[in-house]
Specification:
The complex is a heterodimer of chains A (about 350) and B (about 300). Chain A has helices at about 1-30, 30-55, 65-80, 85-90, 95-100, 105-130, 135-155, 155-160, 175-190, 195-205, 205-210, 215-240, 250-265, 270-285, 290, 305-320, 335-340, 350, and strands spanning about 295, 300. By secondary structure, chain A is an all-alpha fold. In chain A, strands 1-2 form a two-stranded antiparallel ribbon. In chain B, a hairpin with a 2-residue loop joins strand 2 (about 130-135) and strand 3. The mean pLDDT of chain B is about 85. Classes of the chains: A mainly alpha (about 350), B mainly alpha (about 300).
């Protein structure tokens, strides 16, 4: 057993080292377009995994992710923009003096974005988490819309509908995937902790979990606000990646894409969310060609705007109707599986069972 | 605020309230029977709007024929939706059905964008249906009268169907207890399809009247009315037809009056409904006319 455990630790460390090396190589050798898509994939992986924590592991069907992202994106943008560009951009109404001169480094600003989104998660969760199933879905959807409407209307903080531009940009793979990998590691540790077991117990049977002495509301709140925290982080990363944000970005459509990732990957599988996050992001870019005019064998085919979303909606329907488990169901990638396949260092415990 | 403007607002509030009420019925009936928020219900408004638009403009039909065809096709679409997207998931976890509904809604919206383009189109207002009425110094559109009248007639019809016919009794039985009703030889599938047909038909009428009242249609036009009507249904007590009506009127009147009396809050107009929803869910989760059932082991 010990033998196997040390092999697994070594493998994890080796994997992380290889990942860092690969990211470093990618930063220096890939085109800007490729980097952009891969970075976007990292953001969607964070979003998918954190939403999976709420939907797949805790059984709360929340549709508020875009709202928390919005909070994170705005927090990070306001904290990192230079005072000069703030003065330029807020021409409808000047920014409130408290925020006019702050300029934080990127990493603390990103963490702060997560914290602020997490606080919003607590505020939203306090009333919303008394509800269940579809009521919860519609209430969180409502809260996300309320957040968006507030952001549109508090012009002296968020610049309203005009949005923010000139957000300091980050381009390196290491930065985005660093956050991505950290998120996955934290969520994995969380899911395998006693909190994680409580989440799953609540998901499987709320009444039984409560009877076993699990504080249902406390754990729901924890899961929900941790989900919101990571959504905030992802929002911040999104702000750095595209360097301009406005409230219309964070519509329900965005949440739909995250739901698609969670469902496709499998509700209750982080591995699934990672795979689906990358696949969907790349597919989304690759399918752009459908929406652009092209000429095929001398024929001019006009672009069809909206076709991508038709494909993705159909995909979601097909997965839900015929393949409800998604790619991974509730299974996770783990080294045991790899080692078993390779037949290395069978643990005694496994042989007995 | 002058009396004229106030009356104008009252008229607007009543027609918005009736539209909400009409659309909310579809939500409440479907939810009452299969416990599903039919997200795609909202997009049926859009479908009905576009069918009548093309019927009148491209096929040069008289408006009443275009409207009838729109209502018929939307009803068929609603029934097809139930059969394809919801029936296979009837025994699945509720989250799956909800995701399927969201997928259906996005499919309709984006098919709309693909087929007719994302840019808004002006909806024609047939002269036989829309004219100005002058009453003293107040002038208003005929729609302000037509919409509430049609709404009330349809509501009365639905009320009679639900309470006086055999189909209605079957519907109420299924909504009370799905399994027992099916054991009592109620053809559950038929009841569910009928419910979807009635709901979709009402949504189509609502969508046409919505397009007449706010004469600009686009593929995403159903989204906000849809959410608000669902809220109206929850507010009145989901599953209850009179409840949906009351909820729709309260929401419509509240929204218009909020903007009328507090213009500085007009940016928050769309948030109003959600705030109402959250307050209702917190303090009276059963809604005004509903009874809240706590799940027991």
């Amino acid at each position: 057993m010990d033998n196997r455990k040390s092999i697994k630790t070594a493998l994890t460390i080796a994997f992380l080292l290889v990942a860092v090396a690969a990211l470093y190589w990618g930063d220096n050798n890939l085109s800007r377009f490729q980097l952009r898509i891969l970075n976007l994939a990292a953001i969607f992986v964070i979003l998918g995994a954190s939403m999976n924590l709420v939907i797949g592991f805790s059984g709360m069907f929340s549709l508020g992710h875009a709202g928390f992202m919005c909070v994170g994106a705005y927090t990070a943008a306001i904290l990192t923009m230079s005072p000069e560009s703030k003065e330029l951009i807020y021409y409808m109404e000047p920014i409130i003096p408290l925020l006019a001169n702050v300029q934080w480094p990127v990493i603390p600003a990103t963490l702060m974005a997560g914290v602020v989104a997490g606080i919003f998660g607590v505020l939203v969760g306090f009333p919303a988490l008394r509800l269940r199933d579809d009521y919860l879905a519609i209430a969180t959807l409502g809260f996300a819309e309320i957040i968006r409407i507030i952001v549109t209307n508090t012009i002296s903080i968020t610049n309203g509908a005009l949005g923010l531009k000139n957000i300091p940009s980050e381009k390196s793979l290491l930065f985005y995937w660093g956050f991505g990998i950290l998120t996955i590691l934290v969520l994995k540790a969380l899911i395998n902790s006693s909190w994680g077991y409580a989440f799953k117990a609540i998901r499987d049977n709320e009444i039984a979990a409560e009877a076993m002495g699990i504080s249902v509301f406390k754990h729901k709140m924890l899961s929900f606000s941790i989900g919101a925290f990571f959504a905030g982080i992802a929002g911040a990363l999104m702000a750095y990646l595209i360097t301009s944000i406005d409230p219309t970005m964070f519509r329900f459509l965005f949440t739909f894409q995250i739901v698609l990732i969670v469902v496709l990957g499998g509700m209750g599988s982080l591995t699934g969310s990672v795979i689906a996050g990358v696949v969907i992001t790349i597919a989304m870019e690759w399918l752009r060609f459908v929406e652009q005019p092209m000429s095929l064998m001398g024929m001019d085919i006009p672009g069809i705007p909206g076709m991508r979303m038709v494909i993705f909606s159909l995909l979601l329907l097909i997965v839900v109707l015929f393949y409800r488990q998604g790619l991974m169901g509730t299974r996770e990638f783990n080294w045991d599986w790899v080692l078993d396949k390779l037949g290395i260092a069978k643990s005694k415990e496994r042989e007995v069972s | 605020m002058t009396l004229e403007i106030f009356l104008q607002n009252v008229a607007n509030a009543i027609s918005l309230g009736s539209l909400y009420a009409l659309i909310a019925i579809g939500y409440t009936m479907v939810y009452g029977i299969i416990r599903l928020i039919n997200f795609a219900h909202a997009d049926l408004l859009m479908v009905a709007g576009y069918i009548s638009f093309y019927g009148i403009l491209i096929f040069a039909m008289p408006w009443w024929l275009a409207f009838l065809i729109a209502i018929a096709l939307t009803t068929i679409l609603g029934m097809a939706m139930e059969k394809l997207a919801y029936r296979p998931l009837r025994n699945a976890p509720r989250i799956s059905a909800l995701i399927s509904a969201i997928g259906m809604s996005f499919l309709l919206q984006n098919l709309g964008i693909v087929l007719v383009g994302a840019s808004p189109k002006p909806f024609p207002r047939p002269e036989g249906l829309v004219w100005n009425i002058h009453l003293g110094s107040v002038s208003f559109l005929s729609l302000t009268v037509i919409i509430p009248v049609i709404t009330l007639l349809l509501l009365a019809a639905v009320y009679l169907v639900v309470n006086k016919t055999n189909t209605g009794i079957a519907m109420r039985a299924v909504s009370r207890d799905f399994e027992t009703a099916s054991l009592m030889a109620v053809d559950v599938n038929k009841v569910v399809v009928t419910t979807f047909a009635v709901g979709s038909g009402l949504a189509a009428v609502g969508g046409i009247m919505w397009s007449l009242q706010y004469p600009q249609i686009d593929p995403l036009m159903g989204v906000f009315p849809g959410l608000k009507c669902f809220i109206a249904a929850v507010m009145g007590g989901i599953g209850s037809v009179p409840g949906a009506m009351i909820g729709g009127f309260i929401l419509g009147i509240g929204e218009i009056m909020l903007v009328a009396f507090m213009p500085e809050l007009s940016g928050y107009r769309d948030a109003f409904a959600f705030v109402v929803l959250i307050l209702i869910l917190l303090f009276k989760p059963g809604g005004i006319l509903g009874d809240h059932v706590v799940e027991k082991v």
